[in-house]
Amino acid sequence: MSRAASLTPQQREQLFFWQRGANRLFIVSACTALFVALATLVILVADILIDGLPRFSLDFLTHYPSRKPQQAGILSALVGTLYMITLTALLAFPLGVGAAIHLEEFAKKNRFSKIIEINIANLAGVPSIVYGLLGLELFVRRLHFDRSLLAGSMTMALLILPIIIMASREALRAVPRSIREGSYALGASRWQTVYHQVIPLALPGILTGTILALSRAIGEAAPLMMIGALTYVAFLPDSLFAPFTVLPIQIFNWVSRPQQAFSVNAAAGIIVLLVILISMNAVAISLRNKFQKKRNW
Amino acid sequence: MNNKIRKTNLIIVAVLLLIGSFLQAAYAADLIKTDGSSTVYPITEAVSEEFQAQDRKTKVTVGISGTGGGFKKFCRGETDLSNASRPIKAEEIKLCSENGIEFIEIAVAYDGLAIMVNQKNNWASKITVEELKKIWEPAAQGKIMRWNQIRQGWPNKEIHLFGPGVDSGTFDYFTEAIVGKAQASRGDFTASEDDNVLVQGIITDPFALGYFGLAYYEENKDRLKLVALDAGNGPIMPSSQTVEDATYYLARPIFIYVSQKSLKKPEVVRFVQFYLNEGPALASEVGYIPLPKSIQGLVSKRFNKRVTGSVYKGEGAAGKSFGSLLQESGK
After folding, report:
1. Looking at the domain assignment, is residue B1 inside a domain?
2. Rounded CA separation B86/B97 (Å)
3. Are B105 and B165 in the same domain?
4. CB neighbours of B37 closer than 8 A, spacing ≥ 6?
5. Which of B225, B244, B263 lies at the terminal end of a domain, its last residue?
6. What pLDDT is recorded for position A228?
7. CB of A244 within 8 A of CB of A149?
8. Confidence category of residue A79, pLDDT binned at 50, 70, 90
9. A-to-B residue pairs, Cβ atoms closer than 8 angstroms
């Protein structure tokens, strides 16, 4: 500002001209970026809807895979995905949130917790196939869980744990200090403060992070391929140790079949996967809104 | 306090559920686990589908981890049956025997490898094995880059190569049959485990050449051009006829391997019997060429006598007549 003030009116005019130009250029490029991203998404979704919707029916949802593309359905993959994601959530949520609460609220801030912190951040960036290798050796082979629902869910839980921990810590950190101090001032213990004040306030953030992490797990095929989740399963898992398949694997299999009719099935399968993902994200958003209304600071 | 009790209850229920599922797992014995080649997958899938329709107590799972990946699991005793688009290799036989796994080799169909070019390609209608070798051998990497380097008179245009990924049995077989050594290939080609990617690549590129299973050609007939292969007896087009009588050079049997140990389970025996009976019809339904009746008979006989081991004795299938190998081993 002071620089502009010391300029002659002509120079100032020129400077403003350039600034306005740069401003406009930035807006235009930002809009272009947004448009490209949205257009890609719209084209992808439209393409899939055009290919897949005609094939989409109740039969498609209630039939097992088959060599005949018109009779093939995704029942086993759909149920497998739902089971796996439920189990993954049951495993990863308490562990992840627990770890976050410990690190954020109870752990001493020393070198050791610093190392753990860095490690968790690193783990979040490890490629998913590496978790697959870990799962194969640890759960499938050492613990003899075989290629089961349990082994798959545990692998997926490991995969998303770092994400849940980081999101939960972020949410806990966002709770203002004054609330903790207020609680202490009223004579609450540390645990009471965390349990009654901090967690309820951080919950929307924690839940959103968890659901987004689970959405990632739903779309992952690589680690499950690694532990050897199966492609053709024409029954529903009836125990934690039953073999299973999931949507991404079934879709991948259909895409690579020679018959054109199978790629239509794949498109219909992708629609199912998208619907699950969108509804999970919707749940995340509505949970956040619901809890957010309660807090007033 | 109440809260605490409720939580303890929850934990107890969870533990009970866990134990329950353990017990259930012990009961779920009628499970046949198969894995391996993606080439054989459609046949085993079809057989499993039909088998489970008539034997509702038994469950069959089919995985895809490639011929090599399948054998790794099979030889650790993790699967009952392994799909393979090439015969088992010497080191895989060794791994199996180290783990006490004996196996029976069962050929289930023939498959031909098609050499494919773009439809706009009006120069290459036949090619010799030597020319293919010149294109695909490791020494060609970075050198053989243009069509006119392969045969005089072909255009002075860049050649773009497409082939299956290096983990597939198809790659093993092709390199052995054409270059002379399994896995010996140039590396500068577009490789994909998904044959549809190869199909798309060749359809959109006028200077492409690639190879993959005949079934993928059959589904894209009107968009691809087949090249006749000359192995010394004149150019021959792959067809169910020429693949079955082995006049087409790149014709190979594909297999399932069943573990001797698993054959103690009656449902596995039932499954393999069903495979032998219904396999040929189902194989042709999903795009493969059934074995001739005489060879089917020999394969069944071998299974009924529970003859273990591979007729290829750890070697590849290229350039060998499967029928005569079978007959020899039957004596």
Report:
1. no
2. 19
3. no
4. B64, B66, B67, B70, B83, B84, B85, B168, B169, B254
5. B244
6. 73
7. yes
8. very high
9. 88
Residue B1 clears pLDDT 50, i.e. is over it: no
Strands B251-259 and B235-236: unpaired
Residue B221 has pLDDT above 70, yes or no: yes
Task: Inform me whether the pLDDT recorded for B16 exceeds 80.
Answer: no
Amino acid at B34: T
Are residues B62 and A65, on separate chains, in Cβ contact within 8 Å? no
Judge: A146–B45 Cβ closer than 8 Å, yes or no. Answer: no
What is the model's pLDDT at position A234? Answer: 86
Which residues, in sequence order, are CB contacts of A85 under 8 Å at separation 6+? A156, A214, A217, A218
Question: Pick from B52, B63, B78: which is nearest to A231 by CB?
Answer: B63
Same domain, B168 and B178: yes
For an interface test with B, the pick among A63, A64, A67, A265 (most B C-beta atoms closer than 10 Å) comes out as A67
Q: Is the pLDDT of residue A2 over 60?
A: no
Among chain A residues, the shortest Cα distance to B213 is held by: A258
Q: In this model, does residue A204 exceed pLDDT 90?
A: no
> How many residues would you count in chain A?
297
B65 chain-A contacts, CB cut-off 8 A: 225, 228
Banded pLDDT at B27 (limits 50, 70, 90): very low
Tell me phi and psi for residue B311, to 5 degrees: -70, -15
Total count of domains within chain B = 2
Tell me how far the alpha carbon of residue B30 is from its chain's centroid.
26
In this prediction, residue A21 has a pLDDT band, given cuts at 50, 70 and 90, of: confident
- Asked which of B218, B244, B270 is the last residue of a domain, the reply is B244
pLDDT digits (tens, 9 = 90+) for B116-160: 999 999 999 999 999 999 999 999 998 899 999 999 889 999 999
B25/A242 touch (CB, cutoff 8 Å), yes or no: yes
Report the 10 Å Cβ neighbour count for A265. Answer: 28
- What distance in Å separates the CA atoms of residue A69 and residue A273, rounded to the nearest whole number? 19
Nearest to A258 among B63, B195, B282 (CB): B195
Best CA proximity match to B299, nearest among B104, B51, B47: B104
Residue bearing the bigger pLDDT, B169 or A94:
A94
Strand partners, A233: B61
Q: Give dist(CA A216, CA A159) in Å, integer.
A: 9
Residues of A in contact with B25 (CB under 8 A): 148, 239-242
Residues for chain B: how many in total? Answer: 331
CA B181 to chain centre: 18
Does B284 lie at the interface with A, CB-CB under 8 angstroms?
Answer: no
Could you tell me which of B301, B321, B328, B320 has the C-alpha nearest to residue B105? B301
Cα(A169)–Cα(A99) distance, integer angstroms: 9
Average the pLDDT over B251-255 and give the result.
92
B216/A147 Cβ within 8 A: no
Pair A14, A4: CB distance under 8 Å: no
- List the domain range (segments joined by +) for residue B93: 9-110+253-329
CATH topology for A59-296?
A: MetI-like fold (1.10.3720)
> Nearest Cβ partner of A239 from B21, B42, B61?
B21
